[in-house]
Design a protein that fits this description.
Helix content is 42%, strand content 22%. The chain is of the alpha/beta class. It has 4 helices and 4 strands, in the order E-H-E-H-E-H-E-H. Helix 1 links the parallel strand 1 and strand 2.
């Protein structure tokens, strides 16, 4: 089964994204995390194939977290999300 982890502090957005994905792809398994600590914990337990990651997290940058994840799990695909349209974020991502 394909597994997705959504790491985003915005609960309504997480729920919306999850609902869209489940409606479109009913046979996927989706877990959610509201911050980087919860996300890293679920990463080890859940072992996702894909992570949707908000760039602005409470304690660590959404640009630093992918480096940590990729160092231990290079096979996981990470999609970085942001409502900010700054070229600096696009380049860094």
């Amino acid at each position: 089964m394909f597994k997705i982890l959504i790491i985003d502090p915005n609960d309504p957005f997480r729920q919306s994204l999850k609902n869209i994905l489940v409606n479109r792809f009913p046979f996927i398994d989706i877990q959610e995390a509201s911050d980087e600590a919860e996300g890293l914990n679920k990463l080890e337990i859940f072992d996702p194939n894909l992570i949707f990651l908000e760039i602005h997290l409470p304690a660590i940058s959404g640009l630093d977290l992918p480096r940590r994840i990729k160092s231990d799990h290079p096979e996981i695909v990470i999609v970085i999300l942001s409502s900010y349209d700054l070229p600096e974020y696009q380049t860094a991502a």
